[in-house]
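Reproducibility note. Readers wishing to regenerate the assembly model reported in the main text can use the exact inputs given here. Chain order matters: entities are listed in the order in which they were concatenated for prediction.
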Amino acid sequence: MPNITIEGPPIKDLDVKRRLVKGLTEVAVEAYGLSAQKIRVVIKENPPENVARGGQLLSDIKKAEAKLKGG
Amino acid sequence: MPNITIEGPPIKDLDVKRRLVKGLTEVAVEAYGLSAQKIRVVIKENPPENVARGGQLLSDIKKAEAKLKGG
Amino acid sequence: MPNITIEGPPIKDLDVKRRLVKGLTEVAVEAYGLSAQKIRVVIKENPPENVARGGQLLSDIKKAEAKLKGG
Amino acid sequence: MPNITIEGPPIKDLDVKRRLVKGLTEVAVEAYGLSAQKIRVVIKENPPENVARGGQLLSDIKKAEAKLKGG
Amino acid sequence: MPNITIEGPPIKDLDVKRRLVKGLTEVAVEAYGLSAQKIRVVIKENPPENVARGGQLLSDIKKAEAKLKGG
Amino acid sequence: MPNITIEGPPIKDLDVKRRLVKGLTEVAVEAYGLSAQKIRVVIKENPPENVARGGQLLSDIKKAEAKLKGG
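Running the prediction on these inputs yields the following structure tokens for the assembly.
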């Protein structure tokens, strides 16, 4: 009963979620040699003001990048 | 200071959450021999389009089941 | 590529989130001797009816405390 | 398919683990109204030098307490 | 910077781990439209006495199944 | 009762762990305005063959880097 948790930005398109869980499950089936029915996947969607890299919120990084391009 | 994280479908009834955390805490107190005050519980509620089994979103599995019954 | 997940009550002030991720990243940089760019931080905000201590929901503990103070 | 993760100190007695997962599962079955077969439980065992409270490692807290009692 | 955590039984063959993280990363790249360098994967290996389904430890379920086959 | 989980490479020096949990706790105390006693920290140590970036295990990335430098 492996469990995959994938955390990333929000995904608006339900078809993208469908392909995501199908793809992750197939890879896990291959690795563990277990039936797909034993694989659980959870998608966690984090807003960009709750994730940071290099000590900066992703929401701030994006704004700074947009300014650079716009300027 | 054990920590219990329980992930499942959304729970609408607050009394169900009350019984859930009380019950989980009692089981942990028994197992670890620690006071209830040291046990932390977190409930995580996942929407059915963010959880998959067998490579299929729970929201799709439920729709397919509803169709079968309805048909 | 260390990852820090911090779970706590909701944080409304974006500046508090900024200081939080900056501070956590600096501490991790110091401990691991890695560049800040390799440190990822995720903030998870739990509503008080989804967290318990001593077998009681935080939302109920707060209500009881407010009553005591009010009485 | 709810999932329960319980993190705490190492548990040496296998019977304690058995009662722990049985108890947690029964509480979840009651709360979600799902069959026990849908409940997954994972026990995570953390060594006391990897957990802290009040900014102090549990291993250090325990040593300090033992000294107090011994002295 | 999405993060994938995959929890399952121990994997002894390093090549299986290589294929696992490569496959999971490719699926995430496709879903999020981000470069592979932004995808982090962590494999967590749980011993069978620390995972349960239906309220029973996997280690006990396996023993019972082996007995059935053997007898 | 906020909880911080920090995942990274193994830390051999106990003093580094002490400074790490002390520093993370201080940052959380500042952000949440709660006493240090309410902050829990857990350190998770992942071996380099269980973490990947860009679809490659850290253990393989390190080997390739060592070769480049050595050659």
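We highlight two features of this model. The helical segments of chain D are 14-32, 58-70. Chain D has a mean pLDDT of 96.
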